[in-house]
Design brief:
The complex is a heterodimer of chains A (256) and B (270). Chain A has 256 residues and is α/β, with parallel strands linked by helices. Chain A is built from ten helices and ten strands. By secondary structure, chain B is mainly α. Helix content of chain B is 71%, strand content 3%. Chain B contains eleven helices and two strands; from the N terminus they run H-H-H-H-H-E-E-H-H-H-H-H-H. In chain B, strand 1 and strand 2 form a beta hairpin. In chain B, helix 2 packs antiparallel against helix 6, helix 2 runs parallel beside helix 10 and helix 7 runs antiparallel to helix 8. The longest helix of chain B has 32 residues. The relative contact order of chain B is 0.15. The chains are: A alpha/beta (256), B mainly alpha (270). At the A-B interface, helix 2, strand 6 and helix 4 of A face helix 1 and helix 9 of B.
Chain lengths: 256, 270
């Protein structure tokens, strides 16, 4: 049995106000894959991601992590298996110091003393934030907060990383740092994002969500070449695949 | 709004003080919680007009602050912040209670003034003791100690969430008020109408963020228990700490040391 496989089967989610966020979504992510879930605002990306570790309960359908279906009984194990990095690091960092925040997960796993300290320092070293250990999280910059948020999850040694908008709100340098960091992880990775250039660099596979449904699921390179599909889903090609705006000026070619 | 922001950061600073390594900090949290409880009960149970017998109780904060190296000026500032509220509570005491208690020259001290002063000193002592407890122990450890002392987990977890969410509420209040101020052009905005809507939004927004934080906690294995980083057990040091302070505090409560000292001093002077 591998814990690194995520399977979503006919997932549907309706919010209490009647909004249908996810209509009927099915996909399977296998061991070591790096998959991006993209879509316009309100497409259902974050809602879908929050189902993966039981933060939201499906109206119908099933989620399986490895051979284990997600249920109340299996949730503690599944939450250790899937490390969830939230979109807003302020939601994820709530303890007095960075050390305490990173130690929160390992302490909940029942670890004590030196074992907790080892996990915390390893996770902080992994994200290059060991010097922030004693600082209060609210004094960190956006990029630092994002790194620490990732460390809080790594300290629980998850098999799968689920990241909600990992590069949103970051400057170019911090974005590049986070991307380099994520590239080094050999976990199964699932991203939701609007940063399509990051998707192009980090994800072999892309799933497009549009109004709660999967419009496309396939190799990233192929999906980003399909202009009609992208336009129908209110998306634009990544900048790296667009023609240079300076070069096309005066050539009569319209910008895609 | 700057003041609310500063108060929140100060509260967080208080929590950070608990990471020090003084002899008081390293004691098991249960001993500190119990001593603080004995202290608060001793102070609160004094008579409403009592003034002189309250002063010896200052020995407890004085000793703990000096041994644990807490920044006393910082704590004093925190206490100064709450003093207007205390004065507000006892504001009408001098008006309604005209019982004559002391006569100093031509000035008569009424029961109302004495009870207001007593209330003020008792609040300084008790709130100060609570600050000291948090500053030497940390909120999570205090709640864990309460649980280990037999308080149901339901209550201790509520306390912890209250502590977490109070920061959220304060942050959110700062943001919302700033947005309102900036669009009020120095006037009162739309008065009560906009204020009531603002408060409603504030609650809903805080609720939403609290839900997100709770989800983040659940995602990291939270099952209703906060774990304090410092592991400790109730040993000989804790027993000595508890017994010696309890003995002293109960003695101070039962015996009016101020009076004895006063009589001794006046006796010598005679």
């Amino acid at each position: 049995m591998s814990h690194h496989i995520v399977e979503v089967v006919h997932l549907k989610h309706i919010y209490p106000d009647g909004t249908i966020a996810i209509k009927d979504v099915s996909f399977r992510v296998t061991h070591g894959e790096s998959v991006a879930i993209i879509g316009a605002n309100g497409a259902g990306k974050s809602t879908l991601l929050q189902h993966l570790n039981g933060c939201l309960e499906a109206t119908s359908g099933q989620i399986r992590i490895g051979d284990t279906p997600l249920s109340k009984g299996t949730m503690p194990d599944i939450r250790r298996t899937i490390g969830m990095v939230f979109q807003n690091p302020d939601d994820q960092l709530f303890m007095p110091t960075v050390f305490d925040d990173v130690a929160f997960g390992p302490l909940n796993l029942g670890l004590v003393g030196p074992e907790v300290e080892k996990r915390v320092s390893e996770a902080l070293i992994q994200v290059g934030a060991e010097h922030l250990s004693a600082k209060p999280p609210y004094n960190l910059s956006g990029g630092e907060k994002k790194r620490v948020a990732i460390a809080t999850v790594l300290a629980m040694t998850p098999d799968i990383l689920a990241l909600d908008e990992p590069t949103s709100g970051l400057d170019h340098f911090a974005r590049r740092q986070i991307m380099l960091l994520l590239r080094e992880f050999h976990h199964t990775k699932i991203f939701t994002t609007h940063d399509l250039d990051m998707v192009l660099e980090l994800c072999q596979r892309t799933i497009i969500l549009h109004e709660g449904e999967i419009m496309a699921d396939g190799p990233t390179g192929e999906i980003f070449q399909n202009d009609e599909l992208l336009a129908a889903c209110h998306l634009e090609k990544p900048f790296a695949l667009q023609q240079c705006p300076v070069c096309i000026r005066g050539t009569g070619i319209s910008k895609p | 709004m700057i003041s609310i922001n500063a108060a929140v950061i100060d509260l967080k600073r208080l929590e950070l003080l608990a990471d020090n390594d003084s002899p008081i900090h390293t004691l098991d949290a249960r001993a500190k919680v119990l001593v603080t409880f004995v202290f608060i009960v001793s102070v609160v149970s004094c008579d409403r007009y009592e003034l002189a017998s309250l002063f010896p109780f200052f020995i407890f904060p004085a000793v703990i602050i000096s041994v644990s190296n807490l920044p006393w000026l910082f704590l004093a500032r925190k206490l100064a912040l709450i003093s207007p509220f205390v004065l507000m509570v006892g504001f009408f005491n001098p008006v309604f209670d005209q019982t004559e208690l002391y006569q100093i020259g031509h000035i008569t001290i009424t029961g109302g003034w004495a009870s207001l002063a007593s209330l003020f000193i008792r609040s300084l002592l008790t709130v100060g003791a609570a600050f000291i407890l948090i500053g030497t122990t940390g909120f999570a450890a205090v709640c864990q100690a309460l649980e280990r002392l037999g308080i149901p987990q339901l209550f201790t977890v509520q306390l912890l969430f209250l502590h977490r969410y109070i920061f959220l509420l304060a942050d959110e209040t700062c943001r919302v008020s700033r947005a309102r101020e900036l669009r009020s052009c120095g006037k009162r905005g739309l008065g009560v109408v906009s204020f009531s809507s603002l408060v409603g939004h504030l609650l809903l927004r805080t609720w939403q963020q609290a839900t997100r934080i709770h989800r983040a906690m659940l995602a990291r294995g939270f099952v209703g228990q906060f774990h304090a980083r410092r592991q400790s057990s109730f040993g000989v040091a804790e027993l000595c700490y508890l017994l010696s302070w309890s003995l002293l505090l109960i003695t101070l409560r039962l015996v009016d040391i101020s009076e004895i000292i006063g009589k001794a001093v006046t006796g010598i002077l005679k």
